[in-house]
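Sample intake — Putative enoyl-CoA delta isomerase 1, mitochondrial
Collected from: Stichopus japonicus
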Amino acid sequence: MYSKDIQQINLNFTFPTPAQFVKSDKALKLGLVDEVVPMDQVMTAAKKQVTKFLEIPDVGRSIVKEGLRKADIEEFNEREKAMLDSMPA
């Protein structure tokens, strides 16, 4: 495979590879960011979002985070168990 082919494959991904930058309008469209604001309004918008976030009770945030991570944790545990099971006793 040539580098030209690899570059074309990278262009076909919906989400960028770590080495690629995404313009703000595309990031918003893909759901990578919640809001796009002019540079001079970034701190005001960030403070507004943090204030909104802090209004959610700690327990609620914990439950949401746990739910978001559940599939990853289960997959990790399954891989770890498979690895341990494959080791000689």
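Post-analysis note: Confidence is low (pLDDT under 50) at residues 1-8.
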